[in-house]
Design brief:
Layout: H1 9-13, H2 35-47, E1 50-51, H3 52-57, H4 64-73, E2 78-88, E3 91-101, H5 116-121
Antiparallel strand pairs: 1-3, 2-3
Helix pairs in contact: 2-4
């Protein structure tokens, strides 16, 4: 695992998008989103439906699907559409994902009604 010069291995392993039920205040407050999760959320909000390849190639987010998973676990309503084949930069790509915001954006339908243990795992 790579670490920055002034960072320990345990600090670099901490993902700012980790599932943390305390990141959302009790009630209906939106959770705090930082790091790559905040970048992915901003891209989806600004660009509308966006290909996973765009986030990887143009925005330097190597694991966009993982960040979308983290955002869903925090209650964001992100819709995924899988395309069997799509052309990206002159090549045909298979099984490409397009991400967009659902309505309502937060909380995802059923998120607050789910038991806390399922919300924490993102299984609402």
């Amino acid at each position: 695992m790579k670490t920055l010069p002034n960072q320990t291995a345990s600090e670099s392993a901490v993902d700012k998008c980790d599932h943390n039920p305390s990141s959302a205040a009790p009630g209906t407050s939106r959770p705090i989103v930082t790091g790559q999760c905040a970048q992915v959320l901003g891209i989806i909000r600004e660009q509308g439906p966006v290909l996973s390849f765009v986030m990887t190639a143009d925005c330097a987010i190597p694991e966009a699907a993982a960040r979308v998973h983290n955002l869903r676990a925090k209650g964001f309503n992100i819709v995924t559409q899988i395309h069997s084949a799509i052309e990206f930069r002159g090549s045909i790509r298979r099984n490409a994902a397009t991400y967009s915001m659902g309505v309502p954006e937060w909380p995802a339908p059923g998120f607050l009604a789910a038991p806390a243990s399922e919300r924490q795992r993102g299984l609402f």
